[in-house]
Automatic annotation (TrEMBL):
Residues 29-104 form the (S)-ureidoglycine aminohydrolase cupin domain. It comes from Nicotiana sylvestris. CDD domains: cupin_TM1112-like. This is Uncharacterized protein LOC104239735. The lineage of its organism: Eukaryota, Viridiplantae, Streptophyta, Embryophyta, Tracheophyta. Pfam families: Cupin_3.
């Protein structure tokens, strides 16, 4: 993936980083095959999550503030139109303020 760092925000906790790419191009989304990925959604609320594999997701709609555990960083925000990479091993709380609808894929090689 050829991410343009000028429109990406990174988050670091030891070496666990959430990468948010704002408004990826249609060409990039097509290249990744986003529309063939499974979909997942949730209503507003707080969710405790642990990622056992790296997840790449594209939010169709929603707004999320992620609070990583055991980190000096406070939070990472993303929402509809964002392409997000969540590292394997991250434990966090998702504070969902607008219902989420997303395509997602787990990296099977991150075992």
């Amino acid at each position: 993936m050829d991410a343009d760092q000028s429109n990406s925000d990174s988050f670091s906790s030891s070496n666990l980083r959430i990468i948010v790419q704002k408004n990826p191009s249609e060409a990039q989304l097509s290249e990744l095959g986003i529309k063939s990925w499974p979909k997942w959604g949730c209503s507003p609320g707080k969710y405790q999550l642990k990622f056992d594999a790296e997840e790449t997701c594209y939010l169709l709609r929603g707004k999320v503030k992620v609070y990583p555990k055991n980190s000096t960083e406070t939070s990472v925000e993303f929402g509809g139109g964002d392409l997000v990479i969540i590292p394997k091993g991250l434990s966090c709380t998702w504070d969902v303020s607008l219902a989420v609808d997303k395509h997602y894929k787990f990296d099977s090689s991150s075992s």
